[in-house]
Amino acid sequence: MDYDYDLYVLGAGSGGVRASRMSAAKGARVAVAESTYLGGTCVNVGCVPKKLFVYGSHFHEEFEDAAAYGWTTRAEKFDWPTLRDNKTAEIERLNGIYRTMLTNAGVDLHEGHAVMTDAHTVSVDGQSYTAEKILIATGGWPVVPDLPGKEHAITSNEAFYIDTFPEKVVVVGGGYIAVEFAGIFAGLGADTTLVYRGPLFLRGFDDSVREFVKEEISKKGVKLRFDTNVTSITEANGRKELKLTDGSVLPADTVLYATGRSPNTGGLGLENAGVSLSDNGAVFIDEYYQTNVSHIYAIGDVTDKIQLTPVAIEEGMCIANNLFTSNPKKKLDYSNVATAVFCQPNIGTVGLTEAQSLALHEGDLDIYDSSFKPMKHTMTGRDERTMMKMIVQRSTDRVLGIHMVGPDAGEIIQGMSVAMVAGATKAQFDATVGIHPTAAEELVTLRDVARSA
After folding, report:
1. 323 neighbors 133 (Cβ within 8 angstroms)
2. Which of 121, 250, 329, 417 lies 20 to 30 Å (CA to CA) from residue 350?
3. C-beta separation of 419 from 430 below 8 A
4. Count H helices, E strands: the chain?
5. What percent of the chain has pLDDT over 90?
């Protein structure tokens, strides 16, 4: 059959754009459909605007700390529309860059809602296109649990565009988005409470990191309510009230729900193509991103595996290689994927947590950890600390995990992840000369075992 395209991609987010461009560069005829915004979650309502907001929310501390260094200055006032609109202008600039990248690569962009009408046909706003291969890269979407008054809550999608900056905010959730936005709102001056149903947030991260971050963000004014859930939200005269499971009531101007994201597969017509989905709507794939339908593939958050932009991009590279070259098939190694949480202070982590290490190597572990005041604050007097932790398998001397909480943790752990992927040993870290004075040098000067496990 003579198809319109060799590859049709549903979704122009980070993974879909990379797969489209690289496939076109290898000679494939490619089209991509996008109904919301070019660049996907990361560029528009995720990583990029979030980090810009984190930068903005930290300036009040910089103004305060400047006095210890001889600067007589103070923050007069914060203007929310300036931050919001400058952020939006930057996002629109990036949207244009994504459009140009696709155009320059020879990829046809179809802006509209795509629906699969059969296993080889995609319909976009009434226009049908056929493709030999199809890639699902539609990402994820925030989910608000079904509770009375849920319509009074916003998600991270809307938080980047609110009209008036709130005086009092309640953030509901315990993942990285909830913790990051709690820090953003508090840093920009809102009275902020974080409500989480479990005993401690950031489930899945190293327990030492979770405990440390709890203490640090509490110092920055975020009120923490653990083992608590919301039973209902009411609104009167623009003010919200949240009823909690412990019987208390929390007032708020803004209620942000960051309780998870689900794969964005609704309304795509995947059932018409016979694509199998999990109970939560995730697309089932094998190790090479192939669905149960041999010519249909999926990458990124829609598969509900590791929800990180760089992971989706690398998966997109694998798709282009596997489908349109004669090179050996590629798949991503997920074992040492580094990540950062841009709470304040930041988290950076790569490799196994202590709990994961114990499950695999109990009785064969040495744990190194360190906590100290960042050099900058030895003069400011700010009560903020940095934490570093390294987990080593004693019998092999191999480093299994590195975890950090502190300024620029993501930047530091990015370098550490190269060493982890290379299989670095503790002896190699010890043989590395540190850069002094830096926080990062602590990771090559950890000499004393804090405990064995």
Report:
1. yes
2. 329
3. no
4. 13, 22
5. 98
The bridge status of strand 168-172 relative to strand 398-405 is unpaired
Express each pLDDT in 56-115 by its tens digit.
999 999 999 999 999 988 778 899 999 999 999 999 999 999 999 999 999 999 999 999
Whether the CB-CB separation of 39 and 13 falls below 8 Å is answered with yes
Distance CA 169, CA 186 (A): 9
Preceding amide of 142 cis, omega within 30: no
Report whether 153 contacts 259 (CB < 8 A).
no
Write the secondary structure of 36-97 as one string of H (helix), E (strand) and C (coil).
CCCEHHHHHHCHHHHHHHHHHHHHHHHHHHHHHHCCCCCCCCCCHHHHHHHHHHHHHHHHHH
What is the three-class DSSP state of 125?
coil
Distance between CA atoms of residues 388 and 130, nearest Å: 53
pTM for the model stands at: 0.96
Residue indicated by tokens 């952020």: 87
Direct distance between the N- and C-terminal alpha carbons of the chain, in angstroms, rounded to an integer: 61
For residues 207 and 355, the answer to whether their CB atoms sit within 8 Å is yes
* Best CA proximity match to 143, nearest among 248, 333, 280: 280
Identify the CA nearest to 34 among candidates 170, 136, 132, 131: 136
Is 436 marked active-site?
yes
Dist. CA 443–CA 446, nearest whole Å: 6
Q: Where are the beta strands (DSSP E) in 293-383?
A: 296-298, 339-341, 347-351, 365-372
Closest C-alpha to 220, from 173, 188, 172? 188
What structural domains and CATH numbers belong to the chain? 5-141+262-324 (3.50.50.60), 150-259 (3.50.50.60), 339-452 (3.30.390.30)
Contacts of 59 (CB under 8 A, 6+ apart): 75
